[in-house]
Design a protein that fits this description.
The protein has 905 residues and is α/β, with parallel strands linked by helices. The protein has a 27-stranded mixed beta sheet, with no helix packed on it. A hairpin with a 2-residue loop joins strand 1 (30-32) and strand 2 (35-37). It binds 2-acetamido-2-deoxy-beta-D-glucopyranose (8 copies). Belongs to the Toll-like receptor family.
Amino acid sequence: MSQGLPYRIYSFWGLLPLWMLCASSANKCVVRREVADCSHLRLTQVPADLPANITVLNLTHNQLRKLPPANFTRYSQLIILDGGFNSISKLESELCQKLPLLKVLNLQHNELSQLSDKTFVYCVNLTELHLTSNSIQKIKSNPFKNLKNLIKLDLAHNGLSSTKLGTELQLENLQELSLSNNKIHALRREELDFLGNSSLKKLELSSNQIKEFSSGCFHAIGKLSGLFLNNIQLGSSLTEKLCLELSNTSIQSLSLSNTQLYRTSNMTFFGLKETNLTMLDLSHNSLNKIANDSFAWLPHLEYLTLENNNIEHLSSRSFYGLLNVRYLNLKRSFTKQSTSLASLPKIDDFSFQWLKYLEHLNMEDNNFPGIKNNMFTGLIRLKYLSLSSSFTSLPTLTNETFLSLANSPLLILNLTRNKISKIESGAFSWLGHLEVLDLGLNEIGQELTGQEWRGLGNIVEIYLSYNKYLQLTSNSFALVPSLQQLMLRRVACKNVDISPSPFCSLRNLTILDLSNNNIANINEDMLEGLDKLEILDLQHNNLARLWKHANPGGPVHFLKGLSHLHVLNLESNGFDEIPQGAFKDLSELKSIDLGLNNLNILPPSLFDSQTSLKSLKLEKNLITSVEKNVFGPPFKNLTNLDMRFNPFDCTCESIAWFVNWINGTHANISGLPDDYLCNTPPQYHGLSVTFFDTSACKDSAPFELLFVINTSTLLFFIFIVLLVHFEGWRISFYWNVSVHRILGFKEIDRQPEQFEYAAYVIHAHKDRDWVWQHFSPMEEKDQSLKFCLEERDFEAGALELEAIVNSIKRSRKTIFVITQHLLKDPLCKRFKVHHAVQQAVEQNLDSIILIFLEEIPDYKLNHALCLRRGMFKSRCILNWPVQKERISAFHHKLQVALGSRNSVY
Ligand SMILES: *[C@@H]1O[C@H](CO)[C@@H](O)[C@H](O)[C@H]1NC(C)=O
Ligand SMILES: *[C@@H]1O[C@H](CO)[C@@H](O)[C@H](O)[C@H]1NC(C)=O
Ligand SMILES: *[C@@H]1O[C@H](CO)[C@@H](O)[C@H](O)[C@H]1NC(C)=O
Ligand SMILES: *[C@@H]1O[C@H](CO)[C@@H](O)[C@H](O)[C@H]1NC(C)=O
Ligand SMILES: *[C@@H]1O[C@H](CO)[C@@H](O)[C@H](O)[C@H]1NC(C)=O
Ligand SMILES: *[C@@H]1O[C@H](CO)[C@@H](O)[C@H](O)[C@H]1NC(C)=O
Ligand SMILES: *[C@@H]1O[C@H](CO)[C@@H](O)[C@H](O)[C@H]1NC(C)=O
Ligand SMILES: *[C@@H]1O[C@H](CO)[C@@H](O)[C@H](O)[C@H]1NC(C)=O
């Protein structure tokens, strides 16, 4: 590892030039399947080396001046050719000839100014032609005549002063024609009659300066169902004329956004009486006044948007006749700037009574003074009502506030941002169908007795997040057992630890949000019985104490039994401890957020039940190590991990397993590598954990084994060396003995009578007097005892060495009389001892007897004679006593030694 880290850094920098190389060589088209993307390459010519079978060629954002047909010969399979954002000023008709299959030709943002009859003559198969943002000012004769299959033609942002694109009937399949942002001043019948056979779903004429709708202009078009005339100064009179011209056409959709229609009269839309108009957009008009019966002519209208206007007053006949409207958008539709109460927008009672089919009413971002008793009366099909930020202030919701909705089958009611401060008992009792109630972002501050929700028999979701304070009671939600989602984020929630739990009747609850409440106390049974709970948000509270071991009564297991929980958020709670079994019931958990806590060491097996975890967040904690025994199970199926900003300890034990996992996983790890830095050890401080080289720690188990083997080998070796050093002689001696035994030298245990002598006595010449003096008396005492004494028994004339060998062989034992003299005697040293020992080795270790006449250290004995006391049995080692009275004991010992049977050991 110590080498690995710098190496990794080096190779990281080493990649840079390669990457730059790639970037510079990327100055080529990207071909994927049959699509060639040559955009943004500053090309001045059409590339000639693309695969011939491409069907899409993107040449946008280059510097092409033309598209020479010859260059496309190769690409005859093209279906889509995008040449937008170039400087093409001329188009040759042969282009389409080379591209017979072409369906989409995009030449937007170029410099085309002239289109001739020949330009598109071969483009028969074209379905889309985009010529937006060119410089076409006039269309002469019939350039589009042959485009029989064209569906979309876009000529916006040119300099066209007329809608006339041809002199003959053509474009019979055209569905969308855009002529927006041109210089068209008038719509004239003869300038549109080339569309006499077309069925236009969308005629886009926005942002022109149209001042005139000549008689019959729309009737010239075969069939027109969608007309867009946004951003044109029409005013009410021209609008009225427009509508008259649309009379008896098949118009369905009319968009008149930002047309300076400040007021409508009962005649404005008169002309639309003879149509089946279903969609009308009157947004962004500063519309101030809607006269009674203005919409009386639009009985087929289904979709009306009045967004962003300045309406002052809705009377009971403003919407008269809108029998079929299903969707009404009144977002920001009413006067806003006014400060005095008198000029606040007014909605009279029964204003919506005609809208029998209205299902969706959006009244967001308005400034109404309040809700009147019959404001919504008559909306008998209303399902969705958004009153978000609709009122200057709606301080109290009483049991009469929503009386006018009593007959509406309302499913969703949005009351956010209305400065509501109190909900009185029974406020929603009229809304028995309601499924979703949003009361978020208000100023509600009260005790929830439970009566607030009376009558909400079908309620599924209640949003109460972001209010002033909510004091819970055991009955707070007792009347809404159907509730599935309850949002109580940042409501200064009080009494959550009341018993029985405020949530105990919510058996169907799947989502509970209690975040940002600074809750510090929770009972173990707060969530008991909430078997269906899937999402639990407890972030930004103060729950740390509950999981401390030191907590009086032990850790509080408030998550127990939540077997269907999928998402758990415990971020920012100050947790520094998690008890062992905290998550053990949460076997279906998919996502857990423990970010921004103070967690350091997590208990092993903490996440063992979380094998289906997909997302784990632990960013900004104090985690130093990521080990398998904690993170193995949850990492198995993980797709998202966030462990940024932890003080990782980059050692093999702490981080190696994690780094290996990172290298092998497909999971998305946010912030990698920059936000995963080593804190310790000091030499890696500030480096990314991804630089940590795990090869040094790889397979640490075999490594440890190797270490054990190496160490024990070394120790064994040292032991052997020491043994050989101190006891080597013994080993080699006994080795010698063993070898002789094994090789079949039979123990020679001849009977005493087979030997001529009882013992051969080896002594130094200078010690001969002592030997003579002490051995001959013994012979005299015991007639059977006969020593071989060199001076006396050697045959005269016999060669001395041979005599010695023979004598030793004929003696049962060999006696060494050891003195300083013997050690220095050269013959003894080299020869006699060798033979004696040789015989002892071959026959019997007992056959040698050492008699020490003086104290000789073992090392000297070894050095001089290669003998050691340790080679022999203790009874074969005799010391000549200094005291006279012990001499008889010595004799006795010697006799024992001489009489002992020759045997191994
Ligand atoms: C298109 O041509 C390329 C080679 O130029 C070839 O690899 C590819 O398989 C071809 N695709 C088809 C659909 O023929
Ligand atoms: C061609 O590339 C441009 C820019 O990358 C892109 O906006 C355009 O949609 C592409 N055209 C086609 C037909 O894919
Ligand atoms: C494109 O065609 C022109 C002739 O029209 C030829 O001079 C040029 O080399 C061609 N370019 C490529 C890239 O084939
Ligand atoms: C139009 O495309 C079809 C194949 O879709 C092809 O057979 C036909 O020849 C093309 N027409 C022309 C005029 O290129
Ligand atoms: C339109 O309103 C005027 C009064 O403003 C009224 O005299 C006239 O009869 C109304 N026309 C229709 C068609 O309702
Ligand atoms: C409106 O629709 C009805 C029924 O679909 C149809 O008979 C009538 O002709 C349509 N009116 C116009 C002007 O298209
Ligand atoms: C509303 O509540 C008050 C008491 O607060 C009660 O007198 C009145 O009858 C209730 N109105 C309705 C319509 O229930
Ligand atoms: C209520 O309206 C607000 C503002 O448009 C929106 O953000 C919120 O999602 C709506 N609530 C519901 C439950 O749709």
